[in-house]
């Protein structure tokens, strides 16, 4: 077999990380699904990993890929490795800190290289890649993940919803008028063309290597890309919340309100991803889900980081499965991670937050909280549609857990109770 020959040749030579046969390995994983890769290949990959010296960037990239590919072999398969998050350019869990241990206020420069720009670019890349896969599969241009393929009409619907899901990101990137086609397929083609234009080889490789489905069901491709996109959003929101804390700590209420407004925009805009995800065929989802045991969204570091930056979790929640599933975040919180709630109270006591500025910050906190609560409600509704009363993967309770936490307050200092009721987006996930 090709991958055996190429791996043997690579291992018997200099084992140069830049010459590793990525394509042959990924092709085999795609042919059968990660869960069904033969022991022979896994043994060879494990041996290759042992030869990697991680002193160089290519070697570290190879090591990260092999760790993701061998997660089931190692017995440490989880949500992070399932989504191949170590291979994507997402923010780290640990915050940057300034004098006195305060969270540093990231000054985000515009354009390439700026954190906001890079995250929006990654979001567009992920969704555009998912749509390109849909189009290629609908015309039988590829044989990747051939089981339970939907028809051309569903591919067109996914194109429409996918283009809509990245509309806000395109606007922030200065590309608001770049996709104008009314035909969803033509619009998706244009979006993909935009995404690949100027894409650096490192990003191209990251996208290719971060798609390792567990099975060969068509809809798993969409599932993985949408969840990766959400991780990108959560990482971006966490950075905005850190910036909010820093602004409140240094007596700058208007920048704090601006950060919160931007975070709300990210969460609200990402809600449209649920419409795209809701096009998954429940039968297909239940098929590949059989092989994802051990991986659950409850293990999302970025989401828990976002939650804990709003306010410090109560001791019982911090000691629950939700936070024990993300030990890195749990330890940061236990070590005294700052939160917006705490910074808000301190600013009010110090007198640096009062009058119109106090009203503005409270307004933006309430608006952000409502956006998060809306996201939770929609997530729960979609999970019920896909899972019913089934338990969750990752040894979790599934929809009962989501029902229990969907109304947990985002902040304790600001309530959303007196805000007018809002209609959840995406038409109940069935648009």
TrEMBL record:
Taxonomic superkingdom: Bacteria
Gene3D superfamilies xrefs: 1.20.58.480
A Pfam family matched in the record: Trp_dioxygenase
Entry-linked InterPro entries: Trp/Indoleamine_2_3_dOase-like, Trp_2_3_dOase
Protein name: Tryptophan 2,3-dioxygenase
Record organism: Micromonospora humida
Lineage: Bacteria, Bacillati, Actinomycetota, Actinomycetes, Micromonosporales
């Amino acid at each position: 077999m090709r991958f055996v020959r190429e791996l043997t040749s690579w291992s018997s030579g200099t084992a140069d990380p830049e010459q590793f046969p990525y394509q042959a390995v990924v092709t085999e994983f795609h042919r059968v699904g990660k869960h069904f890769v033969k022991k022979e290949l896994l043994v060879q990959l494990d041996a290759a990993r042992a030869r990697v010296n991680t002193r160089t960037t290519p070697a570290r990239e190879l090591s990260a890929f092999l760790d993701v590919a061998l997660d089931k072999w190692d017995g440490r398969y989880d949500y992070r490795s399932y989504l191949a998050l170590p291979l994507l350019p997402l923010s780290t869990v640990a915050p940057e800190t300034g004098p006195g241990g305060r969270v540093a206020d990231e000054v985000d420069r515009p354009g390439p290289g700026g954190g906001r720009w890079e995250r929006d670019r990654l979001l567009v890349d992920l969704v555009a890649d998912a749509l390109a896969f849909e189009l290629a599969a609908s015309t039988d241009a590829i044989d990747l993940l051939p089981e339970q393929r939907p028809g051309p009409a569903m591919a067109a619907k996914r194109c429409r919803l996918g283009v809509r899901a990245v509309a806000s990101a395109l606007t922030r990137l200065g590309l608001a008028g770049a996709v104008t086609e009314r035909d969803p397929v033509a619009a998706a083609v244009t979006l993909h063309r935009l995404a690949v234009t100027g894409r650096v080889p490192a990003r191209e490789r990251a996208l290719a290597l971060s798609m390792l489905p567990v099975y060969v069901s068509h809809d798993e491709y969409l599932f993985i890309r949408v969840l990766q996109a959400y991780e990108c959003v959560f990482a971006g929101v966490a950075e905005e919340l850190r910036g909010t804390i820093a602004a409140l700590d240094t007596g700058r209420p208007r920048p704090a309100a601006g950060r919160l407004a931007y975070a709300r925009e990210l969460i609200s805009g990402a809600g449209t991803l649920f419409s795209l995800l809701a096009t998954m065929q429940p039968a297909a989802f239940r098929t590949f889900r059989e092989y994802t045991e051990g991986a659950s969204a409850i293990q999302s570091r970025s989401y828990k980081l976002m939650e804990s930056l709003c306010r410090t979790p109560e001791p019982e929640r911090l000691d629950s499965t939700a936070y024990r599933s993300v030990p890195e975040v749990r330890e940061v919180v236990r070590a005294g991670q700052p939160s917006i709630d705490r910074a808000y109270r301190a600013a009010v006591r110090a007198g640096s937050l009062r009058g119109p500025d106090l009203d503005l910050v409270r307004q933006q906190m309430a608006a952000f909280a409502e956006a998060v609560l809306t996201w939770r409600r929609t997530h729960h509704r979609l999970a019920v549609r896909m899972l019913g009363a089934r338990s969750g993967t990752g040894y979790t309770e599934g929809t009962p857990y989501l029902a229990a936490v969907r109304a947990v307050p985002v902040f304790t200092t600001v309530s959303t109770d007196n805000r007018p009721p809002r209609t959840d987006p995406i038409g109940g996930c069935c648009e």
